[in-house]
Amino acid sequence: MRSSLLKPLFLITMFASACASAFSQPSPATPVFSGSVFNGETIVYEGKLDKFIDISVAELTFRSRTAPGSSDLIIDAHAVSKGTLLRLFRYSFLQKYESTIDLSSFRILRTTKHDVQKERVRNGEAIFDYKEKRVTYVETDPKDNMRPPRRIASEIADQVYDMISAIYAVRLERLSVGKRMDLTVSDSGLVYKVPLTVVARQQQKTKIGRMWTYRVEPDIFGPGKLIEQKGKMRIWMTEDPRHIPVRAEIDTQFGKIEIKLKSYSKAA
User: What's the rounded Cα separation, in Å, for the pair 224 and 222?
Assistant: First the structure.
């Protein structure tokens, strides 16, 4: 088991829809609903790896809340190893993200993350400066205060998402089969273009009932892309206005990873 498995696990719930840019040049997204609708939402997923047998490897949780004293939306997300992954491979990981989003424009302002892979621990913070058109990422090792911070800075455009805010930004959009768009996503100070296509409308049996869904396929694999390995991703999200990602599959060199919705709740 290698650390390169973690990004597919965490990203598999990342892209849940595409916005109305059709087959022409992509245009800025026009949200159907305000991002404040996500306040108080909790979504939990279970991840399994199917190579020789179907084994449970992770649980992923997303919680959203309004920042005290401001209109910013804060989304807490974490992925933690569990079950067979720990027993058979003796491999553990924990990834925690906190994304702060400006609700007026629904663009990312700040990302913090805590990444634990067995004995390796890293803390990271990305600050998005839209006046300077730059994202600056600083990563530190809390176990070694003498180790110099790792710094990465990249140029950004007016509308950028991190791994987490991208999920929620595209959930705001209208969907139809054949819609395409490009998202600009920043991860650890680097910036990527991620094409998305809505390829089908299908029924799925889920924890919240049998639902009509759209199947979305983000192009994130290959040289220079978000995941620099061979693979393919498929994501199913509900057709209803909540646009909840309920299932996802990803083909990798490790086997097929499947993520299924475990629970969904919304505070009153």
Answer: 6
Mapped onto helix, strand or coil, the DSSP state of residue 245 is strand
Q: Which amino acid is at 117?
A: Q
The two structure tokens encoding residue 134: 């730059």
Residue 133 and residue 253: Cα distance in Å, rounded?
36
Are the C-beta atoms of residues 261 and 247 closer than 8 Å to each other?
Answer: yes
What's the pLDDT tens digit per position in 9-50? 555 444 332 222 222 223 334 444 456 788 899 999 988 877
Secondary structure class of 211 (helix, strand, coil): strand
pLDDT digits (tens, 9 = 90+) for 186-238: 999 999 999 989 999 999 999 999 999 999 998 988 888 888 888 899 989 89
**No. of helices (H) and no. of strands (E), the chain:** 3, 14
Nearest alpha carbon to residue 161 among 60, 251, 35? 35
Token pair for residue 14?
A: 């990342």
Say if CB 260 and CB 46 are below 8 A apart: yes
162/25 Cα distance (integer angstroms): 22
CA–CA dist 155, 48 (Å, integer): 36
The residue among 107, 13, 116 whose CA lies nearest residue 62 is 13
